[in-house]
Amino acid sequence: MLSAQERVHIAQVWDLIAGHEAPFGAELLLRLFTAYPSTKTYFRHLGDYPDPVQLLSHGQRLLEAVGVAVQHVDNLRAALSPLADLHAHVLRVDPSNFPLLVHCFQVVLAAHLQGEFTVEMQAAWDKFLTGVAVVLTEKYR
């Protein structure tokens, strides 16, 4: 799936995010809800106006899952299988929402990392996150 250089880019970006998962994740969710209001359907527990503490908490969990994917980039299916089951069978998230999440994540990365987030890194992360989204949708079949 990913070339050796792409894996390096994934790790470099993750090193910049590590330790800041909650704020990155919270901003990702806010951007998702703002740009795609229909996605709030799956976050009813956060309410119409999410509490910052709840956003940080859910954002932390979201980015921790991305961290698991980064650590298991060679075996995303096995690493993300429980998460895929949860989203497909319990939460019943429409899989068309995963690309929206990927897009918002790319925006958050670019906004925060700016010059450190090179075109090559962006391309690697796009490929990686698309792979994560594909794995998460496989349980829907």
UniProtKB/TrEMBL annotation:
Keywords: Heme, Iron, Metal-binding, Oxygen transport, Transport. One of its GO terms (molecular function) is organic acid binding. InterPro entries: Globin (IPR000971), Globin-like_sf (IPR009050), Globin/Proto (IPR012292), Hemoglobin_a-typ (IPR002338), Hemoglobin_oxygen_transport (IPR050056). One of its GO terms (cellular component) is blood microparticle. Residues 1-141 form the Globin domain. The keyword RNA-binding does not apply. It comes from the Eukaryota. GO terms for biological process: hydrogen peroxide catabolic process. Belongs to the globin family. This is Hemoglobin subunit mu.
